[in-house]
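#lab-general

N.A. 3:47 PM
ok so I finally got the sequence cleaned up, no stray characters, all 360 residues accounted for. can someone with queue access submit it? mine expired

B.Y. 3:52 PM
send it over

N.A. 3:53 PM
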Amino acid sequence: METLGRMCHAGGRIDPVRDRPESVIDPEEASEEKSFQHKPLEGGTVMIHIVNNDALGEQLSKCEPLKGEIFVWREMYDLGPFSSEWDAKEMITRRASFFEDRIGISKAQFEMISYYQEQRLKRIPQTTTITLWFQSHRHDQLMLLYLLNRINQYGLKYVDWVEVPQKEILSEAVLLRQYENRYSLERQHLKHAVTAWKNYISSDPRNILHWLGTSFSPLLFVFNAFHRHLDYFPQYQNGLNVIEAQALQVISEHTPTFFELYEEIHQLREEDGLSEVHFAAMLNELGKGCAPLICTERGEGITIPDRDRPDRPIMLTSLGESVMAGEKDRIQTCGIDWWLGGVHLTSEGCWRRDSKGCLK
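B.Y. 4:20 PM
back already:
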């Protein structure tokens, strides 16, 4: 999975100097309903493969039967702020500030890559076939929603989705098999993607619950992605979300290093597509300030580790133990300043999820 730390490297045959960005435009609605089906080879005479990591892009570039331009899209739509009230320029600016503050990615670098990607997508000719290579988990499905939202705006007609297997080695045979079983994304899929994305970036998370309860979207994996997304909201009993509670439970059992902890949580949450960067950012929130819930063996806060350096064990603080036991509340004790799609969680106004799954 690609992290934003590698956004500065141009993927495939894309040239950021040649394709310097101009402007970014907001999406608009779609219409005309059609059926969901496997798609035979048709569409435009030129093909662009959009992927979200360099490893897949490199494998595709070596797959002779699947010739086409490789476009590596670098973003993390499961992390950081969104708002239906922001235009595309403000969204990029605010997200760049968030990633610089929480992860240490250069704001200028983030903005440069974001504008470049948007402009490159805008310049794709309408006769081009776009093949989107994404997995079925939350991380990739949110990226798929965003891209379909933009593709709908630009009026691109030939769009396929290839489901990338999560646990298979991506040999040429596997790539060809998945490509042969690709899905045609017609107008109805773009229409539903636009609606789903609007719900995701809404400031009221109940819109997602309403969409899950009333929609008959043909984008089947989005349902699971949204259900997983709701697990990231704080719970009533202690202010921790499901993933944070699982992490603290593992820490209480055997003081793992960051990468040991990540692997355990990743196995528990395979359908999330949770990246190391995203997970480290979540742990940072639990380990910072004057009232941390976790720390390293030296009593330090949690930082995003380097695989080339020794990884220190993570421990619970006494406050972390109290929160786990339900004796204290994470938000009341430590505060919160976090984004889930378009929802800004703050100490003054924080949506919580009860035992029945309702948000209040």
